[in-house]
What does this fold into?
Amino acid sequence: MKFRIFTEPQQGASYDDQLAIAQATERLGFDAFFRSDHFLEMDAPNGGLPGPTDAWLTLAALARETSGIRLGTLVSSATFRHPGLLAVQVAQVDQMSGGRVEFALGTGWYAAEHAAYGVPFPKQRFGLLEEQLEVITGLWNTPLGERFDFTGEHYTLRDSPALPKPAQQHIPIIVGGTGAARTPRLAARFADEYNVPFSPIAETDAAFARVRAAVDEAGRDAGSMLYSTAITTAIGASEAEYRRRAAAIGEDPAEFRAESLGGTVQEAVDKLGALADIGVETVYLQIMDMQDLDHLELIAAEVAPAFA
It folds into this structure.
């Protein structure tokens, strides 16, 4: 099982805060540093100060400040950027990182942040997402020297040189969500990884089963799809330390223990083992207290080795 650190900087984190946790992520042997792609806090105690940071601008900087970890968002919103420009941005960050980017894209859901920054938020967004994936993968996959054209309901591209190209021959694409029909189809068509975020184990298992069926129906090799989950995390070396970490992120210890990855080291290992049993291959550990680097130290030393 791979362990990735996943952060929510819109809740109140500077670039320097993100740099510190990304470098700790690399130093401690985690597989990747991922961050959210949001522009408005969600009931953050400090109001989200000092304010939001752009996800891809941040990842570009981190690409130059790290050397081994994978980098990405969970997930970028299709409402935020034109797919042609996003393809350029992601390819450039991949070049800057030496080929360490993974690309996750979703429909977007937080209407308030769109209103706060004047970004259109259409009611129907799934078609937008599908066309963006068509455009972005089409641009990246167009052979050098050839041109890319696309005509869709939402986007039209004419005579594009389809540049720049990523450093990787293929940037891994992540599609997530628990939709019962369209999401499995979209994942089977475009994704290298399917992610179910913040869901009970039974619901995650059912979602995985739907995507496995869609992959089979699409004629893909079953082993060509990776399965992952994201889970909010607060772990302690002792019960007292766990309770302190839960309180620091405004969570009730009992509720958090039941719904998320909370508790002592052994409890965390047991829950992760149950996730492994349903086929989870990668876990995105959502770390809400970005100042608590000792938390990462504990996970790296006491939890991750159980799944090496």
Observations:
- The chain has a mean pLDDT of 97.
- The chain has one domain: 2-307.
- The chain has eleven helices and twelve strands.
- The first helix runs from residue 15 to 27.
